[in-house]
Amino acid sequence: MKEFFKQRIYRGLVRRFNNLKIARTANLVSRISPPPQGQPVVFFKASTGIDDLSWNSGFHLLASWALRLQGIPVAYFACNSGMSKCVLGTNRDNPYKEMPCKTCVAQSQALYAGVPSKVEGQKSKVEWFGFERDLYLMSRIQNLSIPELSTFQFENISLGPLCLPALRWVLRIHHLNDDENTRYLLREYILSAWNVAQKFEKFLDETNPRAVIVFNGQFFPEATARWVAQKRGIRVITHEVGLQPASAYFTDGEATAYPIHIPDEFELNDEQNAKLDAYLAKRFQGDFTMAGIKFWADMQGLDESFLQKAAQFKQIVPVFTNVIFDTSQPHANTVFEDMFDWLDMTLEVIKEHRDTLFVIRAHPDELRVRKSSRETVEGWVDSRKVRSEPNVVFVGPREALSSYELIQQSKFVMVYNSTIGLEASIMGAAVLCAGKARFTQYPTVFFPQTIEDVRRKMKEFITAADIEVPAKFKRNARRFLYYQLFRTSLPFDDFLEPSVRTTQARLKSFSLKDLLESDAIQAIVDGILKGGDFLLKE
Question: Strands 247-251, 490-491: parallel, antiparallel or unpaired by DSSP?
């Protein structure tokens, strides 16, 4: 307990010094920026960071500074207790708990230091929006069930569907319980989304921006703002963490879907192939991080007991699952209703083919500290009594078994929408995919488009003497991963570094001249102002 409080005090001091550093730099940006001209660019991010600087808050801030330093006016839409319940402020164990607005607003004040709230003309400004409860809307939704709230529309805005991804993410569950706690949260999210819509409409009237930049675009505050802007024909750009450490991804599309345009004629040359292979060599040893999280620090090979069991079967088929907040994205479930629906179908086929060993692998992120899933693959395994199936091995989220060694031993690989499917294709494996993934926008895996076709293809692969994998799968997988790593992942490591919690960031010391000249900022500014592709130049 003593160590916990020491760590908490230390983290608080780091946060305070970081905010002071941010505020000083923000004030400097305000002082030295040239007189702004032209239409402003709007920035809005209410779902990333509360009292610490998140990586996405850092990308958001640095990109906005770069625009202002080049004379482009920036208008920040900032939350000042503007939602009765927000995404990061929700306590899933106690949904009625008061929001941490004080620390969140203090963090935003540091980010936007030196930017006036009210100005005339096209100049940089920050608009602090508050919350006004719509009593009529509240009366409309007060007695609705979860299914009714989930599809609720008001004034031609699909408020229910806009709020669902955030609710599922917060609760770490796909199949929502129709209980009062869940209904209460969804009602408050709907009321808050409506408030954001009203305030953002007015804000757009006042600013008439050339573009709107939002974090993620899936959580209801930013999703609502995105919907409002797109309804007006305003260009909306979303951003997320990139695939490389301390990197960002910006796009005109949905950042979580990761749309990438790769020219048909693009082929990796010897240098690019070597660069990709060096990355893969490290990744296959578990040496990588995502958004500050290192999942495979203690990756282990296949042990003797597993190999002895596997020797009793004709072949091995690994089944790689994903975390609920990735499989619940609206764009993921195009074939099955959800990942568990796919697992139910898979289990039916497993029972028909006892000579095949199926290894069901839970994702380690199911147990991430402070973000652990409540609807888990392990829970599904227990509810379906999967451990009692003689031809199934379940690998739980705490087990650091090497997925790559498993792929090498397999007849084919099954995935829902996890990145391991892309890597398996690169390794030359046949991959049967069941959910829309980032990499399925190109032919990289077998991806049947109906449930029955998935079932049929699974049975076909199990019984086939050999599986012929199209050569284009491996080619496209390598091309796609190369683009993700070295073209779309915009590096910010010269300006941001991990904080006490590696999922948070802190500002480095740097010159504003270096910021403007960085490859990442140049790609972002060119993308915003000139309609560029947000890719790093080779």
Answer: antiparallel
